[in-house]
Amino acid sequence: MTTEVRPLRVVLADDHPVYRDGLRLMLESTGRVEVAGTAADGLDAVLLAERLRPDVVVMDLRMPRMGGVDAIRRVLAARPATGVLVLTMHDDDDSVFAAMLAGARGYLVKGADQEEILRAITAVAGGEVIFGPALAGRVTGYFTRLATARTHDDDPFPQLTAREREVLELVAAGLGNARIAERLGLSPKTVRNNVSTVLAKLQVADRTEAALRARDAGFGR
């Protein structure tokens, strides 16, 4: 016996009536989506999402009365189970990441074809996160930058330059200035200057105290 699959209930929010109506006709023609309602601005999108309880709201970003990012927050505050898919002309980083941080689970740029939009609606309805091919690399890069920034925030000696950190690492390992100069390909005078700068930045009296602090932070192992 074949189990009938219920069409996904969707609310469309876009302030361009020609695009909105065309998108509605396209989605409904597939038999896989039921467009429960349409909205011409963000405020109506929020009200419709609360009343109609759709599986997915397909949301433009730049709309009158209430923009898409604020509308995403309002929709999810009232209906956390509803997925939001952004479908917009705007693909700049500020728009993409603002929508993500507001809680959107998908982001496509207008011009995506029927199958791409259907795939994204289905994915978002199922709790997945999906981005168009042109955005995927930038989203990955965004999270990479966040991770890098977090690592930097955890740095016990953020006041040191990369070279000064190398010098401190070798001081913590017990190397004298001559060995450090040889290891790093620097002149002994440059190493002495770097060591003096490190001591000043760490506000310690001598290299022994600097080495102890560095070892406590995991250097020199």
Could you explain how this protein is built, in words?
The structure is a single chain. The protein has 221 residues and is an alpha/beta fold. It has 2 domains: 8-148, 3-Layer(aba) Sandwich (Rossmann fold); 162-216, Arc Repressor Mutant, subunit A, CATH 1.10.10. 55% of the residues lie in helices and 13% in strands. The protein has a 6-stranded parallel β-sheet with strand order 2-1-3-4-5-6, sandwiched between helices. The radius of gyration is 27 Å and the shape is rod-shaped. The model has no long low-confidence stretch (mean pLDDT 87).
Measured between the Cα atoms of the first and last residue, the distance is 66 Å
Unreliable sequence segments: none
Structural class: alpha/beta
The overall average pLDDT, rounded, is 87
Short description:
The protein is α/β, with parallel strands linked by helices and 221 residues long. The protein is built from 10 helices and 6 strands; from the N terminus they run E-H-E-H-E-H-E-H-E-H-E-H-H-H-H-H. Helix 3 runs parallel beside helix 4.
